[in-house]
User: Fold this.
Amino acid sequence: MSIHISLLLLILLAISTLSISSYAFSIREATIQDLKLAFKQNQLTSRQLVEFYIGEIHRLNPVLNGVIEVNPDALYQADKVDYERKAKAPRSLLGLHGIPILLKDNIATKDKLNTTAGSFALLGSVVPRDAGVVMKLRKAGAIVLGKASLSEWAAFRSLNAPNAFSARGGQGRNPYVLSANPCGSSSGSAISVAANMVAVSLGTETDGSILCPSNFNSVVGIKPTVGLTSRAGVIPVSPRQDTIGPICRTVADAVHVLDAIAGFDHNDPATKEASKYIPYGGYIQFLKPYGLKGKRLGIVRNPFLKYAKGSALAQYEHHLRTLRQEGAVLVDHLEIANIDVILNVTVSGEAAALLAEFKLALNAYLYELVDSPVRSLAEIIAFNNKFSELEKIEEFGQDIFLLAQATNGIGNTEKAALLNLAKLSRDGFEKVMMENSLDALVTPGAGIAPVLAIGGFPGISVPAGFTDQGVPFGFSFGGLKGTETKLIEIAYGFEQTTMIRMPPSFKP
Assistant:
């Protein structure tokens, strides 16, 4: 990182701090509850909040590249909710009323914003309707602030493309250590929340795309059970593995968002089955300070501690002691059967399944668009070849696209892969959880993501510390399908006991 960029960031941070002091209420690091209380006490309006976030985006985004687009109607929406609050309209009591939110740029909005997965191939495409989760957010009173950047096509275009890069959004940067990996594919959602360009964002995960960027950017990410949140209107990778979840700075904020977006959507059949997991009264009731007490937590060291060194390893062991002190029962040195196979997407069959599922699901999404420059994966590949300089194809290629295009539906190879994935889940994660009567599995970082992904299992990443170089890392808590209630208790209990998160340092 060049010296002039480092100096620029220091100047930007100084300006940013001055702008905050002009408000009686401090917006930086404010939670949803803080913001709603400030609204109630007339210390802050939604217009002021949106103006502040837009100012932060203008100052920091040229370096961080966490945001692709700002909604031109964001201030109009803010004025509308401010009027509703002033008029004491019943709608003003809704959980996310007046709270701005950034959406990953593969989540459709029927407004002036684009939905492109970071690619110029979909620029100008017109979606038929808001994504299911966006409908629920609007119903809860949220303001759509804009679209967050991502690893292009949710990291499913090329094995050579770096994390957090897209043709439209550029290279996303980790706000803690600018040269460090911000991870993906929901990179912009995590970067923007970590850097206080917004308090709330949505990400998507097929395999690690919420847990990994949350881990590297010291934020909280919830990967829900597949089907708990609607995937309708989201540019897909795999209907079998895709899930939509919140990325916020606190567990409480993430749970407030989960409450707003979880539930049935007739445009996503998977939500009918998963809706049975939603507790009466929602998830907020499980934000218990002593949520760790009595929980049985499994510790899998191999292979997830293989790369933990120095202070990171010491912090991990310290946290395990903390979990015990808070009343959790730790079942240590557990092994997940065939873990090396699960973590190898080629051997496990995950790659074969995803390639075929991606082509089918993406073509179906493109077919439903009201208007689009491209209508199939084949046309996207052709677009990329034609505009290779625009899409950086010469540099990174589109090898995953080409492999996906070569598939022909779910044939014998894919069926065998799907059977193997189900067996790996059954004999691995599920068996460990049930035989040891575990409430959750605890691992450092996001290495557990493939284990959760292939079975559609939920997970929560919570900030857990910093490496010797200042790069954040988190704890991942994973559970069986529908166990979000337990995971929330555990994650909230851990967060409230440790309180590790701090604002980014913007180290070069």
Summary: The two ends are 6 Å apart (CA to CA).
